[in-house]
Amino acid sequence: MSKYFGIDMDKPWSKLTKPHQTVLLEGTGEKKIRFGYKNQYGHERWYEAPFEGVVANLQRRYEETQSEYLKQELERYMSDKPCPACKGRRLKPESLAVTIADRSIADVCMLSVNGAIDFFTNLGGTEREQIIARGILKEIRERLQFMIDVGLEYLTIDRAANTLSGGESQRIRLATQIGSKLMGVLYILDEPSIGLHQRDNRRLINTLVRLRDLGNTLIVVEHDEETIRSADYMVDIGPAAGEHGGEIVAAGTVEEVLRNPNSLTAAYLRGDKEIPIPRKR
Known about the structure:
It is built from 13 helices and eight strands. It is of the alpha+beta class. Among the domains are: 2-75, Helicase, Ruva Protein, domain 3, CATH 1.10.8; 165-270, Rossmann fold, CATH 3.40.50. The strands form four sheets. The chain has a two-stranded antiparallel sheet. A hairpin with a 2-residue loop joins strand 3 and strand 4.
């Protein structure tokens, strides 16, 4: 490429001419370039082919790879930019022109979960319109309520999945499972209370109880006291962390584990041990 187009390989990118930058990034289209290389025996070989360009090359490798590590590396050279036509709303102007209560679908998606449930709850309309929309509105409100029940009322509907924390993603999947109303499923949750304010903990626990009451089994890895005390069956693994643990120290109902003298967790739950609150944070 450098020989064919006369590109100085020692010149900084900012010093290259616009045509040279364009051909390196976007390729040569259908125009074929003569490429040379040495094979494993040291013999020179030549072939002709179009140059796909750096952008197309990175895009192709990103779409074809199964490696998460390589995807993360390639994402370092990517950035999200809103479409100039739809301004990031991902819909045609014709679709955005349709409104309900003076809001387009994009306007509704910019609302928080709390704001959206208020919008759909207070949505007016004629008697005929309400009869037509009754089923879908009921479904929308129920699904939004599931999000509120797991402490995600502050999220906006159009929030990108890759910007969510691990705890938020896990609780969204939890809300989805509640909406599916499946039975006989084993759920394994790793600290679902992470990132939750203590006042929202009870709502999360109530959600877990609802999943259980549907006929499912939940295994929850937790350090939160309220969640532990809400368990039907408790398994304390220890006696310490890391390589010093891994053994089942106590198992049974919460009351049974509380009576176990070998359980360090039980000692804290009983109040025998405590972590002092620092005077200064």
